[in-house]
Amino acid sequence: MILKEFLELRRDKRTMAMIIVLPLVLLVIFGYAANFQVNDVPTRVYGPTAQAVAAQLKAPFDVKEVDPSGTREEATDALRAQDAGAVVLTDETGKSSTVLIDGSSQFSAQAASSAALATGGALKPDILFNPDLKTSWVMVPALIGMIMAFIGTIVTAIGLVRERQAGTLEQLAVMPFKASDVIVGKRRKRSTAAEKTRIDMPARTPRGRARELGGASRSMTPLEIMLKYVSGKM
């Protein structure tokens, strides 16, 4: 059985290419292209000495706007609207300024906070919206999407393997359906949206006829109807 699977795998050029090329592509993407280092943080400078302080700011602070009349409330609104990643509030002397940092963008916040601490007290970081820079607030929503994508792919693959073992996959192959139609049907069968759009169809078995006479019917998905039609049970 194992030898048979390897022989089929060797004959399937597309599968072999996917097994070899796809891991290499993912390795390059996650190893080199996915870079969490932030070099530019959009910055606004508010306060009486905004012009002088803005001229002294270095990377990663990228000054986009200078407003000597800006207030802390306006700075907070700009961060909340994500118009800036950091806002520098200057005082009248220009020697001690406060940097309001958007903590919801964790990597940008870490870069801005480190740069502010490196000034030796000239810039005092004040992180808003995520003061402790907890990773869970950023990673959990992203992981939910990734996990759902992986689970959907695995469940679809298991369903297709089951259809192949049962022999119904060959029957689907001779029907006027694309491979994508079958896969989408498999995913829709297991999704919540498909459960909300289920259609009622009376069963054609003796028990189903009895239910039909009694006014009862069972719920079938479009994929089940197609499979019933292919196998000649309708």
* Radius of gyration from CA coordinates: 30 Å
- Percent range for β-strand residues: 5-15%
Largest sheet: 5 strands, mixed
* Average predicted local confidence, pLDDT: 78
Walk across the major sheet and give the strand order: 2-1-3-4-5
Provide a count of the helices.
Answer: 11
Distance between the termini: 35 Å
What order do the SSEs take from the amino end to the carboxyl end, as H and E?
HHEHEHEEHEHHHHEHEH
Number of structurally distinct domains: 3
The count of DSSP E runs of length 2 or more, i.e. the number of strands, is 7
Shape: elongated
Which stretches of 5+ consecutive residues score pLDDT under 50?
192-219
Q: Would you mind describing this structure in some detail?
A:
With 234 residues, the chain is an alpha/beta fold. The protein folds into three domains: 2-33, no CATH class; 41-128, no CATH class; 138-231, no CATH class. It is built from eleven helices and seven strands. It has helices spanning 2-11, 13-33, 50-56, 72-80, 106-117, 136-166, 168-173, 179-189, 192-196, 206-213, 222-231; strands at 41-46, 61-67, 86-89, 97-102, 123-128, 199-201, 218-220. The strands form two sheets. It has a five-stranded mixed β-sheet with strand order 2-1-3-4-5, sandwiched between helices. Strands 6-7 form a two-stranded antiparallel ribbon. Strand 3 and strand 4 (97-102) form a beta hairpin. The two termini are 35 Å apart. Residues 192-219 have low confidence and may be disordered.
Give the structure's gist in a few sentences.
The protein is α/β, with parallel strands linked by helices. It has helices at residues 2-11, 13-33, 50-56, 72-80, 106-117, 136-166, 168-173, 179-189, 192-196, 206-213, 222-231; strands at residues 41-46, 61-67, 86-89, 97-102, 123-128, 199-201, 218-220.
